[in-house]
DNA sequence: ACCATACCTCTCTC
DNA sequence: AGAGAGAGGTATG
């Protein structure tokens, strides 16, 4: 008997395209390394938004396959290339940050993990929402904001919402945002939306200005401290020297490298710059990802 | 300058 | 299954 060929996909499925390159990339690890919160893996495709374009991505031997919604003339291949940070020379990065066995192990296991170039506005809100939270909750929060204040896009029958602009998000009051489950972060999100909308914080002006100036500008936002500002600098503003120090990284650096000494945030930062130089942010991301994977492993081991 | 504490409520765990 | 801890931080005393 011959099996009947039945198309499982709906009508008008987008044509897959392809970007070819020969630099290291670990797409799945990169999209799930805690930098971005809206990528969803469905049927072996990563669905998510890059700006106002809904895309699906899938890595193969020679690069990345993709399909997307209308791009309004934008070069989608370049958009993806840029978003994934494929222009960073990872060989140069590895050479500079590979200072010890621990980092060497992380590079070995997670080769191709990259720092993304996200939209600074979305990144700012995501990390304001990250305070005393966890990844599932941050993701849920970002989806709630998108569904309530963004607009829908459809790709092959699959619908996702854009992340709202500062103007769109400004239509929500603090009380509205609390109803979405933001908790004490609601006030900070509303405030940030207001500041960006009226131009008191101009995120696009922060590319390429001195680190300390960009940091200071971000920290003008209530609810944005040094750590959140470093996340925005590293994951969206292309500042590879930014080195976000959360409680876990702090404790681990203290044990692994600092002989148990408790240094202030600024002192740890200066230590990181001295050790890892201008690619310190990559060292941070590899150590962060490694510590998270080891945490998962320990949980599995305990369960049998 | 440093340290403790409150802040919302969701998620994971036992 | 339901209660209790803890959560990628920041602002405030």
Commentary on this structure:
By secondary structure, this protein is α+β, with helices and mostly antiparallel strands. The protein contains 14 helices and seven strands. The chain has a five-stranded antiparallel sheet. The chain has a two-stranded antiparallel ribbon with strand order 6-7. The longest helix has 24 residues, at 280-303. The chain binds a DNA duplex (14 and 13 nucleotides) through residues 34, 127-128, 130-138, 140-141, 178, 181-186, 188, 222-228, 231, 244, 246-249, 264, 288, 292.
User: Using only CA atoms, what is the Rg?
Assistant: 20 Å
Number of helical segments with 4 or more residues: 14
Total strand segments: 7
Instruction: Outline the biggest β-sheet.
Output: 5 strands, antiparallel
**Structural class estimated from helices and strands:** alpha+beta
Oligomer: single chain
> In percent, how helical is the residue content?
40-55%
Mean pLDDT rating: 94
Spatial order of strands in the largest sheet: 1-5-4-3-2
Shape assignment: globular
Strand content: 5-15%
For the termini, the CA-CA separation is 44 Å
* Uncertain parts: 1-10
The secondary-structure element order is EHEEEEHHHHHEEHHHHHHHH
List the helices and strands and how they pair.
Blueprint (H helix, E strand, L loop, with lengths): L16 E4 L6 H5 L8 E3 L2 E6 L2 E8 L2 E6 L7 H8 L6 H8 L3 H10 L9 H9 L6 H15 L2 E4 L2 E4 L4 H4 L4 H6 L5 H13 L13 H9 L6 H10 L11 H10 L8 H12 L3 H24 L1
Antiparallel strand pairs: 1-5, 2-3, 3-4, 4-5, 6-7
Helix pairs in contact: 4-14, 5-9, 5-11, 10-11
The protein binds a DNA duplex (14 and 13 nucleotides) through helix 6, helix 9, helix 11 and helix 12.
